[in-house]
Amino acid sequence: MSLPFSGSKSKSAGLVSAIRKQTLLLNLKPVKKVSVKFDPFSQNAATARNFMYYLLSPKVLKTNPLCLVRNEVVNDRSESTVDVSLVNGESVLFKCENLTVLEIFQQFNKHITPLAPKEELTETLVTKTDKKKGGKR
Prior knowledge:
The protein has helices at residues 15-25, 45-55, 58-61, 101-111, 128-136; strands spanning 31-38, 68-73, 81-86, 91-95. The protein is α+β, with helices and mostly antiparallel strands. Helix 1 (15-25) packs parallel to helix 4 (101-111). 15% of the residues are buried.
């Protein structure tokens, strides 16, 4: 007697692709400033450093060029934190002690990205006759 199969039939793409998927969903429009504070000698400093690395990618920064990203390196054995200051004056603090980079991005997308204003896409229909009229001017 065999056990029935349970689980996925395909392998997951991995942690890096999951982080990439979350960074593609990021929108920094409601954010004024992101401050990342970490102690490099702490055990969990890599989480905050990696978060900052992915946050500073050009595609993410293009969503809000006015957003400031600051890092603060301290040597007081304090836990790593990510402080997000929003445009509306509120502030969100992520304590990175027991979080992974993926979990920080998931919470960022859950709480901050929905605050971004919705963009309206307006497409104009250009016909062949309109193109010809524009070229003869």
